[in-house]
Amino acid sequence: MPSVQPVHRFSHQAMGTFFETVVAGVDEEYAGQAARVVFQEIDRIENLFSRFNPCSEISQMNKMKPGESLIIGLETFECLTIAEKVRLETDGAFDINVRSHIQSPGLLGELRAGKKLAPLPSLIKGGGEELEKPSAEIAAHEFPSLELVQTSSGFEARLHSSKKNLIRSLELDLGGIGKGYALDKALAFLLDWGIDRALIHGGTSTVAAMGSPPNLSMEGKGWPVGVGGGWPEAPNQVLLTGRALSGSGTEIKGTHVMDPRTGLPAQAHLAAWASHPSAAESDALSTAFLVMTTAEVEEYCCLHPEVWALVIIDYGNCKVFNREALPGA
Questions:
Q1: Residue 165 belongs to some domain of the structure
Q2: Which of 184, 188, 191, 205 is nearest to 279 (CA)?
Q3: Same structural domain for residues 199 and 302?
Q4: What is the per-residue pLDDT across 149-172, written as a single tens digit (0 to 9) for each?
Q5: b/e for 295-327, b at 16 or more Cβ within 10 A?
Q6: Residues of the domain holding 181
């Protein structure tokens, strides 16, 4: 009977949590070298994304005034673009600028009073596209528009507004997508090192995997990953390979996720999980699914068959969508 190859584990603290890299198929010394390179890349991304670091690109963008521009790196450009894609696809249920919205007293008061407003204008526009003009109601609340442009020398962020004296500009926060984006980059680094059997997670809230563990029963099927958080009727394990899985919930931190569309804590679901080939998108979608109604999640999954979703509606009541997208659930 063939011997089972060992699995090597390495951990590293970053982004306010612990990342763990699990590598199979190579010797321990080589796996450790690759893990160190991966963790260095995660640290570099944290230095670009952290809003608590005054020198990060996100912090510098949050200080921009209308008419100003800032040279940014590829990573910030990519992550902002993915965040805007998810914001548009979820009708604003995921929004990296939510902190700015909920701190706008006029808009927040109207939202909580149940007033219907036109959708917010797109935060991010690609170079060459005409910026959306907000409705009169939205314009009164002085929301800026952020344009991302690719130039001959790299990428540039430009802040536009019809108002020159904005009280509040940007409050970008990549906390709901940054870890997932870092995991995507980490797996790409491991592939560059010739490693194609690995699992990596960022504080267990998002996990990404490729290949399978060296276990005869799991060979070719994927890495067993816990899901469902122990909620009754929910699946408790999936087999993950070639994609990511993310979870958001209220069990540990309470109602910490805000609904960008109301300015109130998310109340649609007690917990939500999302799986997508992109860890960045699964990270963002798990937050969005916590905010969206069950019907909205179902509609989203109908339009995106590559997305697997699990939502906990209440105790003992859950829904799974696109089961076929994640075999082994």
A1: no
A2: 184
A3: yes
A4: 888 888 999 887 766 555 456 889
A5: ebbeebbeebeebbbbbbeeeeebbbbbeebbe
A6: 7-42+176-325
